[in-house]
Amino acid sequence: MEQVRLRSAYDCDVLVIGGGIVGLSTAHAITRAAPGTRVTVLEKEPGPARHQTGRNSGVIHSGVYYRPGSLKARYAVRGAAEMVKFCAEYGIAHAVTGKLIVATDRAELPRLHALVQRGRENGIPVRELGAAQIAEYEPEVRGLAAIHVGTTGVCDYVGVARQLAEASGAEIRYGTEVRRVDRRPERGVAVRTGAGDVLRGRVMVNCAGLHCDEIARLTGDDPGMRIVPFRGEYYELARPELVRGLVYPVPDPAFPFLGVHLTRGIDGGVHVGPNAVPALAREGYGWGVVHPRELGGTLRWPGSWHIARRHWRYGAGELRRSLSKRAFTAAVRRLLPAVTPDDLVPAPAGVRAQAVLADGTLVDDFLLKEGPRTVHVLNAPSPAATAALPIGREVGHRALAALGRA
User: HSE-up of 381 (CA within 13 Å, CB side)?
Assistant: First the structure.
């Protein structure tokens, strides 16, 4: 790689790569914790939150799913309360709606009960419901049993990201793609952008989401994983009156995906989905988006083939629902029998940046790694948006420690 010459002057103290909600929260946390610290955020898109942050169902997760003691559990429970407070403080659209998790098959009942126990261990209020009680919350939903989680909500995460950018006081450079990185532990980090500019910082924070492993490798660090992109495909419900709030199936603990669910958003519309299928590009929001280099990298990664061998049945079902609207409708009808194919209107898809180890392990928790003068966020799965404020503080603390200011 062509080396970028470092001069003695620095453009900033901390360079943050990535203008999604985690990168902007990190910038916000650094400037709050250490006023006077110069932070520059580099984002390749023309505005904030153009990928995972702005292409999800907008749910403020309670933390009911996550293993007690895990980073996901700690960050989600704390982050949900902080996110509601942040939205209220800045007038960002949000609502605490609660949600139902519904068992539609007897085999799901033990898993539903386990969620009750997990929720209580995480300090989350959970109400158990029999089949007849489901109608108190959702008259059109059917199931054998359910639980109601009162602390779940929805919000405008794009609005949150914009507010974090404004409140941070950081310099935000949109339309700035990082092409090369030169790190010298004794002198800091320099990056060359797509426009040919060179920016120098004392410390670099990698919050590049779908491209975080590539940025880590440019830095000279081995991330020990690869981002394998999974596209989540959504529909909009043409009859939103069928759903009052949020309705989820009982998740399969073998997968980090929550299954097809129903989400009434802050705009009053109801999102249905997502399913999860392999994306053919890191920003592959449709089957027609194919980047051969990125696809080749996914196929060369041994973990991708381990996933395929272990979970081909599950994957085949997801592909079938992607290619067949009737199959997707059938999955929705397990929760909402009144829905028809005509009720489902295609909506924009999202892509999940799933970290996969070489042995095929789907990394389920947050994954942060540090190198000389660098902090890498290598897996920020759902509930990353919910937990953005505490995650930002943790990453910011590590960056300040590398800067000698913690």
Answer: 24
Amino acid at 75: Y
- Domains, the chain, in order of start with CATH, read 12-52+159-225+365-403 (3.50.50.60), 227-235+259-362 (no CATH)
Among candidates 231, 230, 214, which has minimal Cα distance to 222?
214
pLDDT digits (tens, 9 = 90+) for 12-47: 999 999 999 999 999 999 999 999 999 999 999 999
* 24 vs 173: CA distance, rounded Å: 12
CA distance linking residue 332 with residue 342, whole number of Å: 13
Element (H, E) at 368: strand 367-371
- pLDDT over 70 (residue 1): no
The three-state (H, E, C) secondary structure of 153-172, written as one string: EEECHHHHHHHHHHHHCCEE
Residue with tokens 């669910």: 261
Task: Identify whether the C-beta of residue 127 lies closer than 8 Å to the C-beta of residue 150.
Answer: yes
58 to 129, 152, 266, 273: CA distances (angstroms): 25, 11, 8, 12
Three-state DSSP class for residue 310: helix
- For the beta carbon of residue 244, count every other beta carbon within 10 angstroms: 18
Tell me whether strands 39-43 and 171-174 are parallel, antiparallel or unpaired.
parallel
Q: Does the pTM exceed 0.70?
A: yes
- Tell me which DSSP letter residue 30 carries: H
